[in-house]
Amino acid sequence: MAKKFNKYARPYCKNCKLIWGRYSVGFVLRCTQCGQPLILKSFNPWLKIIGGVSIIMLGLLTLLVPNIPMIWIGGFVAGGFMIYNGLNQWSKVEELDEKSKMF
Question: Going by C-beta distance under 8 Å and a sequence separation of 6 or more, which residues neighbour residue 44?
Fold first, then answer.
């Protein structure tokens, strides 16, 4: 039985931290810079987005607790940063996919 392909998995070099587009899966087996074998790594943005929303919700809960004046600000900043980071990472991976589609 064939293994189902993860739509977020991309070829990745642990040594150089390089990512290839999804159209390179099966074609590029070794890193073009260091020659190390590539692994398939998941770049799923939803884990970061859900984590960021959870931290923001926790910040909202601490906003309602009296005598804790500033902790909620950190929750909003950290949660917003996680959401932004997840979406930004995914947009960069999609750019790689479009570039690899051209070849």
Answer: 8
Span 1-51, pLDDT tens digits: 345 567 788 888 888 888 887 777 778 788 888 888 888 888 888 888 999
Question: Which residue from 45, 36, 47 is spatially nearest to 12, judged by alpha carbons?
Answer: 36
CB 56, CB 81: distance < 8 Å: no
Which tokens is 26 given?
Answer: 């099966």
Helix%, strand%, coil% for the chain, nearest 5: 50, 10, 35
Biggest alpha carbon distance in the chain? 59
- The answer, as to whether pTM is greater than 0.90, is no
DSSP 12-57: E-TTT--B--GGGTTT--B-TTT-PBPEEEE--SHHHHHHHHHHHH
